[in-house]
Amino acid sequence: MINIVVKGVLIGILVSAPMGPIGLLCVQRTLYKGRWHGFFSGIGAACSDFFYALITCMGMGFVIGFIKNNQVILQLTGSILLIVFGIYIFRSNPSENFREPKSSRSYWQDTLTAFFVTLSNPLIIFLFIALLARFNFISNNENLYWISIILGMAGILSGALAWWFTLTLIVGKLRGVFNKRGLVIMNRTVGIVILLISLFGIAVSIWELYQSHV
């Protein structure tokens, strides 16, 4: 069960870390309005990611038999998809869309707007599918299935919130020196981490395929 929580935390971080539109929004609000405005925007994004993770998990539950029978292949496929995603993140330049927020909002409005911005991108489901497959997220024990779902979802939400808290804390501390180049470096670092995880996953999957045929 601890393993499921750790996997959930890692998935929550990997989904939140790429500096896409919502990441830029959180950074912008942190720089121009203060750390807590950025963090509450992150809370909205985390809630939306949690919603999509739950949908993905429930959908995967309907094909649990297929997942069990093709576990290694799905993990290999998930790793390949993560490589593509990692390359995309590494090559993207988030600073191109960096601009000052137009108006001041309350924490509640920050959370709500970030939630709907994240919700407007249902393609995140495909990333969740890749991650859940890669990390073998669903327990093979039917008696522990719902427990693993609950603990895993809690881990994903915790990981996402931890990422936004850490990001806004760092940006808030470095407001005077944080620039657009910092966004690019952060994005490339995340891309490299995703690529390394993906390559390790492919190596493990190939080894498991080899062992199963020996």
How are the SSEs ordered, and which strands pair?
Elements: H1 2-16, H2 21-33, H3 35-61, H4 64-69, H5 71-91, H6 107-119, H7 124-134, H8 145-173, H9 180-212
Helix pairs in contact: 1-8, 2-3, 2-8, 3-6, 3-7, 3-8, 5-7, 5-9
What does this 3D model show about the protein?
The protein has 214 residues and is mainly α. The chain has one domain. The chain is 79% helix and 0% strand. It contains 9 helices and no strands. α5 runs antiparallel to α9 (180-212). The two termini are 31 Å apart. The model has no long low-confidence stretch (mean pLDDT 76).
Concise overview:
With 214 residues, the chain is an all-alpha fold. The chain is 79% helix and 0% strand.
State the low-pLDDT regions, or none.
Answer: none
Assembly state here? single chain
Total domain count? 1
Indicate the structural class.
mainly alpha
How many helical elements?
Answer: 9
Rg, rounded, reads 18 Å
Helix fraction bin: over 70%
Record field, number of beta strands: 0
Query: What is the H/E string?
Result: HHHHHHHHH
Overall mean pLDDT: 76
How many angstroms separate the termini?
A: 31 Å
Largest sheet: none
Shape: globular
Strand content: under 5%
